[in-house]
Amino acid sequence: MAQKYASEQPQGLKNHIEKVAIVGAGGQVGKFIVDELLKIGKHQITALTREDSTNKIPSGVKVVKVDYNDPSSLIDALKGQDALIITMAVTASPDQQTKLIDAAAAAGVPWILPNEFGGDPTELEMQKDNFLGERKAKYRDHIEKLGKSSWIGLICNYWYEYSLSGGDSLYGFDFKTRTVTLYDDGNTCINTTTWPQTGRAVAKLLSLKVYKDNANDKSACLNDFRNNYVYVSSFNISQKDMLDSVLRVTGTSLKDWKVTCEPAKERYKSGVEEFQKGNRLGFAKLLYARSFYPDKCGNYEATKGLHNDILGLPKENLDEYTKIAIEMAENKG
Fold first, then answer.
1. What's the CA angle centered on 297, arms 288 and 234, to 5 degrees?
2. Paired residues of 230 in beta bridges
3. What angle, rounded to 10 degrees, do the helices at 133-146 and 94-107 form?
4. E strand or H helix at 182, and its extent?
5. Chain segment 278-333, per-residue pLDDT in tens
6. How far from each other are the two terminal CA atoms of the chain, in whole angstroms?
7. Average of pLDDT values for 122-131?
8. What is the pTM of this model?
């Protein structure tokens, strides 16, 4: 793709993102994105919510109620926006994101961050095996087909706090029973990202210039990532690294835990079988197990590198977020 420069753009065209609309502003990751955008203080933020939504939206954010069955409702909410961030649960209706993309195109929104927020989409075998790849690709392709907006996919892999606290089917930990199941020998490293780091990444990304000023400008800009991916991470760690952190935080020793090993491929297979029988946890099991295959499919830092430095993301303390995860698990009752 040929580089474009701000100096070549029509006079009066702003070279920054000012107005940002977000879907899921009160959700798991959405609230962290909003918090970080507010901290930076460069954006006018609009939260698109359903009429019956009970999520709390922080002050400083404009709230617009929308009806997904009324295209004009979405289009009116998105007119004048520079970027649309879509965050929603994997269980959300598949056509909901399509309706948002259609409305963004009709409203002339130039940038969309689709509901990516996961593993590396270029790992095609993994994406095929986890049943998510084709679905996510459909949304990216739809944006390009409409030709009115460009997309940027934020790749963060699994959220660390959520995954460590989520039980045996995710990162393998059950804090109530002090048991952990390791994929293979527990030494396979993957990337994993905290919610705050994900929020910072989005906010920093949307604070970049849209175009480089001129040919001598070596700084990063949004156009560098047009219809492409941004790779970010908090930690590149194995399950054994997680276990070491858990032991430090809890003040326990290995003898206090029951540790078992299971081949990642066997765990994936059993997850598929459970999922096909209607067990939702089976999907989580197959999803996570597939990322721990020894083919580095979950370790995009090793295969692609990271954009952390470009975005100015900080180094984080593993034990700090392990403690948060354990508290989350305990609060689940």
1. 75
2. 154
3. 20
4. strand 179-183
5. 998 999 999 999 999 999 999 999 999 999 999 999 999 999 999 999 999 999 86
6. 52
7. 93
8. 0.95
